[in-house]
């Protein structure tokens, strides 16, 4: 895990220090395979290992798409506050909010596609060692939990994001982003806990402690990074093009 974190941090720092659009594009092409591979290995080591007999080749990418969905939702939540605080240029407005809403819609669609593809493949194969993972998540309290995730993490936010009025209004988009952020830990709970407490919820303080520890570290890091520039000042041409963006 330390190696994974070093790789991810190195890429983040490299992007932050890139001084031209061409450099960022080259970094993106070089970093994408490594990020996907390390995220897949991390998902296997941390989560798939909780059910040793179960395996899925799409599991890592599904988790990566869920994390990306949460990241985009967080940006949507922070956008109105950043505008009020003057942390971003005043030119950032409805066009950028529309693009952000479209990106969140696409992220939700990718998460759903990978999750449903995994489920259908397991269902069609009907192999006991693969079906066990889903059986543990369809018994007791986890059956209505799965239904709630399907409705809350997919149907409701995607229905809201079909509205152009929602996507072009930063505060309305922030509400949708906050809802998606609420769904992310519920999805994590459904993924992890049934492997430990099949058929029952039985919340423990260690669950909250883990969430607070990881979340607190992320918030602290973001607050530290937030003291720096929030716009690409090293590349004026890209900044001008970004501020003049018009949604198609």
Describe the protein in words.
By secondary structure, this protein is mainly α. It is built from 10 helices and no strands. The chain has helices at 2-17, 21-46, 59-85, 94-125, 128-136, 142-161, 164-167, 170-192, 205-225, 236-243. Helix 1 runs antiparallel to helix 2 (21-46) and helix 3 packs antiparallel against helix 8. It is globular, with a radius of gyration of 20 Å. The N and C termini lie far apart (41 Å). The mean pLDDT is 88.
How many β-strand runs? 0
- Portion of residues within helices: over 70%
Structural class: mainly alpha
Low-confidence stretches: none
Shape: globular
In whole angstroms, how far apart are the ends?
41 Å
List the secondary-structure elements in sequence, H or E: HHHHHHHHHH
How would a textbook summarize the main sheet?
Answer: none
Averaged pLDDT: 88
Main attributes?
10 helices; mainly alpha; 0% strand; 248 residues
Quick recap of the structure?
The chain has helices spanning 2-17, 21-46, 59-85, 94-125, 128-136, 142-161, 164-167, 170-192, 205-225, 236-243.
Structural topology:
Elements: H1 2-17, H2 21-46, H3 59-85, H4 94-125, H5 128-136, H6 142-161, H7 164-167, H8 170-192, H9 205-225, H10 236-243
Helix pairs in contact: 1-2, 2-3, 3-4, 3-8, 4-6, 6-8
